[in-house]
Amino acid sequence: MNQLLPGFIGLAIGLLLGLLSYPAWRTTFRRWRDGRLTDILQRSDNLPVQLGNRYFRGINYLLNEQPDKALEVFLQLADVTPDTVDTHLALGNLFRRRGEMDNAIRCHQNIIENEELSDKTRQAATLELGEDYLRAGLLDRAEELFTSLADQKILTGVALQRLLEIFQQEKEWLHAAQAARQHEKISGESNHRLIAHFYCQLAEEQRALAATDQALELLDKAAAADPDCARISIIRAEMSADQKQYAQVIAYYRQALDIDANCFPLVIDALIEAYRNIDAAEDALQLIQDWLQQHSNTSAVIHLLSLCEQLDRMELLAEVLDKQMDEHPTAGKMYALLRLRESSADTADADIIGMLKPLLEKLLQRRDGYQCRICGLAGQTHHWHCPSCRHWDSTEPVSGSLGE
Ligand SMILES: [Zn+2]
Q1: Which domain holds residue 108?
Q2: 396 touches 371 (CB < 8 A)
Q3: What's the mean per-residue pLDDT of the chain?
Q4: Is residue 130, in this structure, part of any structural domain at all?
Q5: Residue 167 phi, psi (nearest 5)
Q6: Measuring CA to CA, which of 98, 115, 255, 278 is 20 to 30 A from 137?
Q7: CATH code of residue 25
Q8: What's the pLDDT tens digit per position in 50-69?
Q9: Residue 260 CA, ligand 1 centroid: distance in Å
Q10: Distance of CA 378 from the midpoint of ligand 1 (Å)
Q11: Taking ligand 1, which is a single-atom ion, which protein residues have CB atoms under 5 Å away?
Q12: Measured between alpha carbons, how far is 271 from 254 in angstroms, rounded to an integer?
């Protein structure tokens, strides 16, 4: 029974704290705490009385929401026997889940410092301490611990995963790329897209410093990691625009569209601008017409409207709008239709168009253009790295009647 005691107590603490996290259970547990728990523990004839009483006292402190006193009791018990270590690991993790980081850190440090414990147990506690530091935002300390584990080939996969998270939070993109490559080797999971984005981040930094050659070298490294990353072509297009090399701008943006059609709303303004800079607005018009043969982007229709107005080619808009409205009607396409019809409308229709048009304009101005497919974060800005869930390449154009 003595050997089972730590496990039993650990399970009890886990159950009790887990249930306490649900408000509906608190009342039930407070009633239960005052009566039945005492009876249950005291009736257990096989528990060593002194140890059982001390554990019970610790649990009672927890139930009375006095975690500091509970921690003191459990830390003293660690000196009794290494067998209590599982209870302490569980307790430390529970403190972390409750956001009581000082207590979680003390609990795990106490295990690491106990030389009676096996290396394996202390390494497990080191990993947990690293998680505590990470959760507490102590990134330097967490990085040190996880680097030490990874260097010693201890729990390497988890340690590298955590280092990858830390380097991204610290915007240490080169270190992130190195950790991602190491993690790839250990886990067998592909990190190619991640590595490409890390090199893109580095390239953007060099571009901001006007270090064009270094930026281009970093983009080559990104492409070596993942040639199907559309962002690489987009940055190359933007850098070509800096140099006023508009034919290259067009080629790179078209390459990005070939790789990922979701880039359309992101690149179309700059792409049309590049065509204008070489006096080829008609080519831009043709590109959008061709695009709409294969896709049904609202942004493509809106840009077609704009170009048709500028080039006095509204008949081209009429050709595609019927099909577009029939296949995939959206507020944006309806707006284009009203703009098409307003010049030829009779008085009654013109009144209706006059009412609907400003309404649709407001709707379109306020709509979210992009949304993260992982966490649902929506807004008008495109993010390569979602600021909410921190996934890469998860932001997509909003679909539906108000979207694409
Ligand atoms: Zn997200």
Answers
A1: 5-136
A2: yes
A3: 84
A4: yes
A5: -65, -35
A6: 115
A7: 1.25.40
A8: 556 777 777 777 777 777 77
A9: 19
A10: 9
A11: 372, 374-375, 377, 386, 388-389
A12: 8
